[in-house]
Each structure stands twice: as C-alpha cells, then as structure tokens.
Write a structure and sequence with these properties.
This protein has 24 helices and ten strands. It is α+β, with helices and mostly antiparallel strands and 771 residues long. The two termini are 88 Å apart. Mean pLDDT is 75; it is low at 1-35, 445-455 and 497-504.
Length: 771
C-alpha cells in the first residue's frame, strides 16, 4: 500500500510539473549511486523505474520534487509581488522621467528637423522642390474640378425629398446617408483624379525642371504622404462630423445642438484631423529622410500638441457637449442633468489620463501598443458618446410603443417605458463602446502581463463589466415587461390618480386585478434573483469560489428559518391569502376592526390606508379573518326623512323615475348594476317618516352615484312639493293661555330649554354617524 501511494504521488508530480524532464540524478539508499530518469519519460518507464527503487528512495524522490514545486510557486509569487510593486513605482516615476528626458532632448528637435529638411532639399534640389509644389497645386486643382463635376451630377439625387420642416427618422437617415455617401465618394473621386492627373502633369513638366528619374521617385514619395495625411484624412473627419451634426440642415440633425455648436464641431474636427495627420506625416517624413523621432523625442511633443488641442476643444465646447448629452427629452431626470454637466469634465480629465497611460507604456518600451495612437481614438470615441446617447433617445421616440389608455397611470407607464428603453439602449452603447475601446487598444491583455500589470486582473475586470452590463440589461427587460403589464392591468381596471378620493372614500374603491396584485411581488423577487445570480457570476469571474457562499447561504437560511418562525409564518400565510385571492391592491377591507384600502403588499405584510389618512401595517400571520367590501358589487342604501303626511307611494314612483333616468345616461349606466329604487318606509322618528332607497353599483363608483342621486332627489322633491322633515323643539308651559302673556324670564327659560334639546339631538346624530 505504501509503494502504491508513493507511485501515485510520483506520477502526479512528475507528469504535472515536469513532463519533459531531462536526466536528473536521484539519490539511492546508500548515497553513492544515482538513478537516472529516462528520456522520454513514459508510463511504462516510470513503472519499471519505480519497481527498482525501495520505499525510502521513492519517498526521497517525492519529497525532493515537492520541495522543487513549492520553491517554484514561491518564486512565482515573489515575482508577481515584485511586478505589482514595480508597476506602482513605474506608474509614478515613469511619466516624470519621460518628461525630464523630453525636456533634455528638446533642443535636438530643431537640429533634427534641419537635418531632415537638408536631406529633402538634397534629394530634390531647389528645382525639384518647386516642381513638387507646382505638381501638387495642379493636382489638387484638377482633383477639385473633377469632384465639383461629380457633386453637381449627384446633387439632385441627394436633395430629393429633403425639404425643411419636421422630418421622420427614416427621411432624416435617408438624406444624411445619401449625403455622407456623396462626401465619401467625392473624396475618393478627388483622390483618384488628383493621383491620375498629377503624375500625368508632372511627367510632362519634369523636363522643364530637369527632374531626373530618381528625383521623380522622391517627388512621388513625398506627395503620397501629403495626399493621404494632410488632405484625405481631414476631409474624411469632416464628412463623419458633418453626418452627425448637419451644420447647415438643423431639421436633419441627429443630435440636440444649436447651429453655432454644430458648425464649430465640424470645423474643429477638420482642424484636429489636419493636426493629427500632420503629426503622423512629419514623423514619417523624418524617418524617410533618415531622422529617427526617438532621438529628439519629437513624438512626445507632437502627442502633447494633439492632446492639448483635444483638451482645448472639449473645454471650450463643454456647454455644447452637455447640451448634446442632455438632449431635448422633456422626461429627462435629475440624474440625466447631473451626468450631462459632469461628462465634459470627465472627458477633459480623460485627456490627461490618456497621456499618463501612454507615458507609462512608453516607460516599459511597449511601442507596439501605442503605435496606432489608441489613446487619441479612445478620446474621440468617448467624445462621440453624447451624440450616441442622443441618437439612442431619438430612436426610442420612434420605437417605443404608443401610450395605451388615458389618465395619470397611463402617462406614468408610458414615461417609465420610454426611460427603460433609453437605459437599455445606453447599456448596449456601453457594451459596444467598451468592446470598441478593447479593439482599439488591442486588448490582448497578455501584452500587459510582461509589464507587470497583470493580465488576469485586467481580463477579469473586463469580464466583470460585461457580466454587470448583461445583468443590468436583463434587469431592465424584466422590469420593462412587468411594469408595462402592471400599468395595463391598472389602466384596464379604471385606476386614476386624479380622482378626488384616491383611497376610494370611506367605503373603499374598486380593487385591481389579481395579476396587478401579484406583479409587484413578482418584480421584487425577479430583481433579487437577477442581482444574486449575476453577482455570484461576477464573483466567480473574479476567482472567488462561490461554493462556500452557497453553502453559507443555505446555513444562514436554515438558521433564519429556526430563529424567525414568526417571519416564516407571515410569509406562508401571505402566500395562502394570495392563492385564495382574499384581497387585491386598491380594495377596501376590514381586519379585526381595522379598515382601509389595500395600498401595498409585501412578502410578509400588507398596508391599509384608512380613508382619513392613517396607514396600518398588518403582518399576514396576525390576520384571522378579512372582510372585503370591494369585491364584485356594492349595495348602498340612502335614508330620507319626510313629513308624516307625505304619500309613500308617490315617493316610491319618484325614486323609480330617478333610477330610470340615470340608467339612460351612459356615464351612470356603466357603473350602475341595479337602478335606484325605493324600499318603502323604513322607520318613524320624532320628526317624520324615514323612507329608504337603494342601488347596486360597481365598487368604487358608489360615491359618485350617491352624490348624483342626492342632487336629483332634492330637485324632484322641490318640483313635486315635498319638503324634507325638519327637527322642531316645542316647549309646553303649564298654566300659560297664550304666548302674548310670556314675560322676559319665560322667554329666556324657553330659549335655554330649546337650546339644550337641540344640542342633545345633535349629539345623538353624531353618535349614529359611521366612524
């Protein structure tokens, strides 16, 4: 058994750590001889070798190999720590040393440029220099002439159906797309025409300047760089910005910006492209002339010039950028306004951050990473983020479904839906921008590992961002669907937050549907599940083993189950109440003497809003019985006191006529389930007869109907000579033959008695009113 364990350990360590090991001396029991590991090392060779060894030799071999592996792990850990510390030091010292070195070499710029120019003149001669500029000017003129002809040919096609005024998204994109295609094709036509006519002219003019064949090749090499970097690139930059900003056609502008901002954006993009192209051109010309840019650190100063121009552009246009980012959305939130104000400052800070990153990479001699100017492209991409955000909101205005229903709830649902669409679009833009930045930088993070940055950390960080973005996207989609469904259910149920009695009055209102009651709970559960699931996925990508977390959550849940039995009882009771459909949000219920409208439900309790304002929170486990006053239908009974000599049959006919009239009014007929009618004489009191009427209505509508019935009964009684009985106080004074014999003391006593009787009757009436 000991030999088997030794063999197993040897196989695991040897094959895992050193599959291609060469000859290694192994100590024997006597210490004088050595056993060599064969090469190649096969399973058969291992078994044959181990069979010749004793247990002690196998144990020594295993221990030595384990010690070697442990030493290698410790060395790798130490190297990683040293790498991280070195990176932290280099992130501070590297850029500072780069600045000092650039300042020290700055005087070499002029001498290097003079050397480059002398080589340029030596290759071409002064006649050749003049010949170059003449050919260049003629080629540009010829190219522009051909381009002008091309633009006139396609002008009618571009301007077709592009009138001013409000334009649809399709019309706008069609016009801008045609104009953008025309601008790109115009650049291509100009480039091809100039490159065809320029050499043709130069070939015919070269004898006049005595240009030899070798010098002619140099002329073409210099002109080629000028064509591309100083003419084509600025024009392409202007075409892209013109497509987005539409400086002369505000009705087709894709972003929210004034005309002055749009024109400045286009002009400055052209200037930036010219500066950027000149930077690349001058470096390449110097290299072509045998002058390396690294000797004088010319690239350092050119990079600062480009970044300084970007910083100046962002700073001077910060108001326009904020306006573009905020857009003209009337439903913009306070967070949108803050983000619009802060974003230009973040862009301005990004200019310095990008410079710092480039200098750190340069200090590690990672020229392959920064050769393609990724920091400039990153700033430009993020500078267009406000335009992309504006375009997202523009697309949402055309893609969001129309508002369903009317009223405050429908408007609120429409606004919420539009914001969800905007947030989803922003998440998609964020993902696209993040991957685009990764492609710009060529994030193969293994390149950064050599500099001690840590490829695993960088890669996992990107993965975490992707997981968070996907999780948020799922969160928004689920919230969007549930909120739209909830709003549709509430709108269909006739909820309106503009009603005078949002709580349904003192008898409650109509409740929502069963689905509208369950959906808020479902939304909360789904959000919690999404947060937990994607949170665990993110932790797993960090490298944290989530198995102990799941086990710990199970143990905590078990402990909570035992320690919070009351909570569990509340939750279980609430589930059964919802299954039984005992109440819904908006319904008026009574729980052990506590009455109110169901305003909100949670996992463990419900909130009742009393019609006078107080909110009662009642755990489900404490509800023995629920009385629901808002389910299906409501009967309301009204009392009217008339004098004793009133004919009850006449009152009955009048009530019936009122009920018939109201059933003929569509506004009331849709809420009345049974018409208003008389129930005859209900009681007698000291004033007169009490006649009662009743009607059946939909829950929540009875109060409006009651008010209308009171008004109609009053008018009908007045038209038919029926008065409402009034309370009277009669005072009998023994021995008094007539009122004309009353003294002042008698009158005062009578007034006091009448006042006392009236107060007692008023107190009795208040006691009878519902609380």
């Amino acid at each position: 058994m000991t030999r088997f364990i030794a063999i197993l350990g040897l196989l695991l360590t040897v094959f895992a750590a050193l599959p291609g090991a060469a000859q290694i001396a192994l100590p024997t029991s006597g210490g004088d001889t050595a056993t060599a590991i064969e090469d190649p090392l096969t399973p058969e060779a291992v078994r044959e070798m181990v069979s010749r060894l004793s247990d002690a030799e196998v144990r020594d071999m295993l221990l030595s190999r384990l010690d070697a592996v442990a030493a290698e792990v410790a060395a790798e850990t130490a190297d990683e720590k040293r790498g991280l510390l070195d990176f932290a030091r280099q992130a501070v010292v590297g850029p500072l040393e780069s600045v000092v070195d650039a300042l020290r070499r700055a005087p070499l710029i002029w001498s290097d440029q003079a050397k480059s120019f002398s080589v340029f003149v030596e290759r071409l001669g002064w006649d050749g220099v003049a010949f170059l500029f003449i050919v260049l000017a003629l080629a540009v003129f010829a190219g522009l002439a051909v381009e002008l002809v091309f633009r006139r040919v396609v002008r009618n096609w571009v301007e077709r159906d592009s009138g001013a005024g409000e334009r649809s998204l399709r019309q706008t994109l069609l016009f801008l797309g045609k104009r953008f295609a025309t601008d790109i094709l115009a650049v291509i036509v100009f480039y091809q025409a100039a490159n065809f006519i320029g050499p043709l002219i130069g070939w015919n003019l070269s004898p006049l300047f005595g240009i030899e064949e070798g010098r002619g090749q140099f002329v073409g090499a210099y002109i080629a760089g000028i064509w591309w970097w100083l003419i084509v690139i600025p024009r392409l930059g202007g075409a892209v910005t013109r497509f987005v900003m539409a400086p002369s056609r505000p009705e087709h502008r894709l972003v929210h910006a004034d005309d002055e901002t749009a024109r400045l954006m286009v002009r400055r993009m052209v200037l930036f492209s010219l500066l950027f192209g000149f930077t690349i051109w001058i470096v390449r010309v110097n290299e072509f002339n045998g002058v390396a840019a690294g000797d004088s650190r010319l690239g350092f100063w050119l990079n600062i010039a480009v970044l300084a121009f970007l910083g100046w552009w962002i700073w001077t246009q910060r108001t326009g950028i904020a306006t573009m980012m905020l857009g003209d959305d009337p439903d913009a939130t306070a967070l949108d306004e803050r983000a619009a104000r802060v974003y230009p400052m973040l862009l301005f800070s990004l200019v310095f951050i990008m410079w710092w990153v480039v200098e750190i990479l340069a200090s590690y001699q990672m020229w392959d990473v920064i050769t393609g100017w990724p920091h400039i492209l990153t700033i430009l991409l993020l500078s267009f983020a406000p335009a992309m955000d504006t375009m997202v909101r523009g697309l949402v205005r055309h893609l969001v479904p129309p508002m369903t229903g009317e009223g405050v709830l429908a408007e609120r649902a429409y606004t919420s839906t539009k914001r969800s669409y905007v947030r989803i679009g922003r998440v998609l833009v964020f993902v696209v921008v993040m991957f685009s930045v990764g492609r710009i930088w060529g994030i193969e993070f293994a390149n950064l590992a050599e500099a001690g940055v840590g490829a695993q950390f960088a890669g996992r960080f990107i993965e975490i961002l992707v997981v968070i973005a996907i999780g948020y996207l799922v969160w928004e989609l689920v919230s969007l669907w549930i909120n739209r469904k909830l709003a549709a259910e509430q709108t269909a149920a006739g909820f309106d937050l503009n009603e005078d009695e949002p709580g349904g009055g003192e008898g409650g209102g109509a409740g929502g549907s069963r689905l509208s009651t369950v959906l808020p709970l479902l939304l909360g559960v789904m959000k919690a599940a999404i947060a937990v699931i994607f949170g665990l996925i993110a932790l797993g990508n960090v490298g944290i083993d989530i198995t102990p977390l799941l086990a710990g959550a199970g143990i905590v849940g078990l402990a909570v189950g035992f320690g919070a039995q009351k909570l569990v009882a509340d939750v279980v009771s609430g589930i059964f109440f919802l299954v039984d459909d005992a109440f819904r949000t908006g319904e008026y219920v009574e729980v052990e003497g506590t009455v109110g409208t169901v305003e909100k439900i949670s996992i463990r309790s419900m909130q009742l809003r009393h019609h006078k304002g107080p909110v009662h929170t009642i755990p489900y486990g404490e509800i023995p019985k629920i009385t629901n006053y808002s389910r299906d239908w409501v009967i309301m009974k009204l009392k009217f006191t008339v004098p004793f000599d009133t004919d009850p049959n006449k009152v009955k006919k009048l009530f019936k006529a009122i009920g018939k009239e109201m059933m003929e009014v569509p506004e009331f007929a849709q809420d009345l389930l049974q018409p208003f009618k008389s129930q005859g004489v209900f009681d007698f009191d000291d004033v007169g007869m009490i006649i009662r009427g009743k009607f059946m209505a939909k829950p929540g509508k009875q109060f409006t109907l009651r008010k209308e019935i009171y008004n109609r009964v009053k008018k009908t009684f007045e038209a038919n000579g029926i008065d409402f009985a009034r309370r009277e106080v009669r005072v009998a004074i023994p021995g008094l033959d007539g009122p004309e014999k009353l003294t002042e003391d008698d009158k005062a006593a009578i007034a006091a008695a009448a006042t006392q009787a009236a107060q007692e009757q008023a107190a009795e009436g208040e006691a009878e009113k519902p609380k």
